[in-house]
Write a structure and sequence with these properties.
By secondary structure, this protein is mainly α. It has helices at residues 10-31, 33-52, 56-86, 92-125.
Amino acid sequence: MTNSFKGRTGLDRVLRATGYSLAGLKTAYRGENAFRQEAWLAALLLPAAFWIGRSWVEVALLAGSVILVLIVELLNSGIEAAIDRVSFELHDLSKRAKDLASAAVFLSLVLCGGIWTAAVWSRFLA
């Protein structure tokens, strides 16, 4: 069986992929409390990155660390949805996958917090 979407090329493919991506962001925002909270935080932090960062590298690190949190949260939500699609039954492998995805979100938050702390310290407290 072939996938009818695999034959799409050019602008049609790009437009459809963009639509799917926007639908995913909408789904995450409406259905995932953690993503919604992180999106609101990103709405505050992304403009602040341009104010706090003193060079394009600092701005990129500050903004990139915030975007990374959103990316990892989306992947975490996708993993959770796939596992829940298979079964709501408690299983060691399901728990392991969800815990690992959650750990990835945690590490992205630690990285983001560390970058922002260092930048604020360097800019205002050093």
